[in-house]
């Protein structure tokens, strides 16, 4: 069985750790994002990170297109070659793929 990983990030550093160790990173890392395929799991882990004091970020590939009028909420991932059109609101913890 594949072990799940959690990515925590600061502006200068990206670190990975065992998913069960997330609490020990509180205070060491400012920003975090839960990236899981399962939407419920992604939302649950995002709430755990918030409860520990992390600020939730979104990740947008520089190879994605995001319209200037689009809004990307916290916890989202916009993958390479994906597109987010005009006036679209991407809800919290969404994953946008090509």
Major beta sheet, strand line-up: 2-1-3-4
- How can the largest sheet be summarized? 4 strands, mixed
The overall average pLDDT, rounded, is 84
Which stretches are low in confidence, meaning pLDDT under 50 for 5 or more residues running?
1-14
Helix and strand succession?
A: EEEHEEEEEEEE
Radius of gyration: 14 Å
Intertermini distance: 28 Å
The overall strand count is 11
- Helix fraction, binned, reads 10-25%
SSE class:
alpha/beta
Share of β-strand residues: 25-35%
CA-based shape = elongated
Q: Determine the number of helices (DSSP H or I, runs of at least 4 residues).
A: 1
Describe the fold and architecture.
This protein has 98 residues and is of the alpha/beta class. It contains one helix and eleven strands. The strands form four sheets. A four-stranded mixed sheet has the order 2-1-3-4, covered by helices on one side. The protein has a three-stranded parallel sheet with strand order 5-8-11, with no helix packed on it. The chain has a two-stranded parallel sheet with strand order 6-9. The longest helix has 13 residues. The protein is elongated, with a radius of gyration of 14 Å. It starts with a strand and ends with a strand. The N terminus is likely disordered.
